[in-house]
């Protein structure tokens, strides 16, 4: 398993990637968003729809642009290491949405997220991210 320093470094790297993901999912570019996932990584919505792999993640992100601007405000994940190269995480996210056409802002809502992370030659990345709208 990881030593104390290795664990702290891994947690810092995962937290940095989660912050980068949060910025990329809202502001782009799409390649930064995609790069937060392993090549076979997946994102699963509250409705259970899974998007798997870089190509599908890229296509899904590109078509999600429209008049709705979002801001995802993530808590730092609670991380449990399952090996030196894998970990599970869970946390919460507050989402704000603004319609640029109607100039209206929707009610904030939250999602719970469950992640798996994998250490790669590009650093710690999302293997899976599943979200569940909480309220």
Summary tags:
135 residues, alpha+beta, Nuclear Transport Factor 2, Chain: A, 8-stranded mixed beta sheet, 8 strands, globular
Structure overview:
The chain has 135 residues and is of the alpha+beta class. It has a single domain, classed as Nuclear Transport Factor 2, Chain: A (Roll), CATH 3.10.450.50. It is 30% helix and 47% strand. Strands 1, 2, 3, 4, 5, 6, 7 and 8 form an eight-stranded mixed β-sheet that branches. Strand 1 (37-44) and strand 2 (50-52) form a beta hairpin. The N and C termini lie far apart (37 Å).
Could you tell me the number of beta strands? 8
**How far apart are the termini?**
37 Å
Percent strand equals over 45%
Mean pLDDT: 95
Q: What best-fitting shape do the alpha-carbon axes yield?
A: globular
Q: Helix tally?
A: 3
Q: Which CATH architecture is right?
A: Roll
CATH class category label: Alpha Beta
Helix content: 25-40%
Biggest β-sheet: count, sense, barrel?
A: 8 strands, mixed
Query: What is the H/E string?
Result: HHEEHEEEEEE
Query: What assembly state would you assign to the polypeptide chains in this entry?
Result: single chain
Rg calc: 15 Å
Which structural category do the helix and sheet elements fall into? alpha+beta
